[in-house]
Amino acid sequence: MAKVLLIESNKQVREMYRTLIENAGFDVTSTLDAREGKEALSKENFSSVIINSPRQETFWFLGVVRASHNISVSTVPILVILEDSNDSSLDYIEAGASKCLSKFPASGERLIEELRSILNIPKLQLKS
């Protein structure tokens, strides 16, 4: 089972995402902010990261992860959930994000599709 690190400070949103991701067959660990997420990445191997944080915090996280000397950390796929629809996903991609998408609820099923995509996991391999 693929392990996903979910970084989300809003408890209700975090629980919605956690439920959605777990129901798609993933194992989820969640943190409240990017600093906790960085600590979790240094202690455990994750298949991917989903981050929904303020712009500056997200860019800090991307920079720290991509600059890591630990190959399993520096190459982990990162899916950024954009808070603001006016925010440019290109900025995040250039900073090291693997993919970006709009915030929940628009990201519900799309979140799982993009997660599968960055992990190269066909839908059939996940439990229903």
Spatial extent as radius of gyration = 13 Å
Element pattern in H and E: EHEHEHHEHEH
Strand order of the largest sheet: 2-1-3-4-5
Distance between the termini: 13 Å
Q: What is the name of the CATH topology?
A: Rossmann fold
Instruction: Report the helical percentage.
Output: 40-55%
* Total E-strand runs: 5
Determine the strand fraction and express it as a percent band. Answer: 15-25%
| CATH homologous superfamily grouping | Response regulator
Low-confidence stretches: none
Mean pLDDT: 88
Largest sheet: 5 strands, parallel
Tally of separate domains = 1
Structural class: alpha/beta
Shape: globular
Tally of DSSP helical segments? 6
CATH architecture: 3-Layer(aba) Sandwich
CATH class, named: Alpha Beta
Molecular structure report:
Helix 2 (34-43) runs parallel beside helix 3. With 128 residues, this protein is α/β, with parallel strands linked by helices. The chain has one domain (3-125): Rossmann fold. It has a five-stranded parallel sheet with strand order 2-1-3-4-5, sandwiched between helices. It has helices at 11-23, 34-43, 55-66, 71-74, 89-95, 108-119; strands spanning 3-8, 27-31, 48-52, 78-82, 99-102. The longest helix has 13 residues, at 11-23.
Topology:
Elements: E1 3-8, H1 11-23, E2 27-31, H2 34-43, E3 48-52, H3 55-66, H4 71-74, E4 78-82, H5 89-95, E5 99-102, H6 108-119
Parallel strand pairs: 1-2, 1-3, 3-4, 4-5
Helix pairs in contact: 2-3
The gist of it:
InterPro entries: Bact_response_regulator, CheY-like_superfamily, Sig_transdc_resp-reg_receiver. The chain is of the alpha/beta class and 128 residues long.
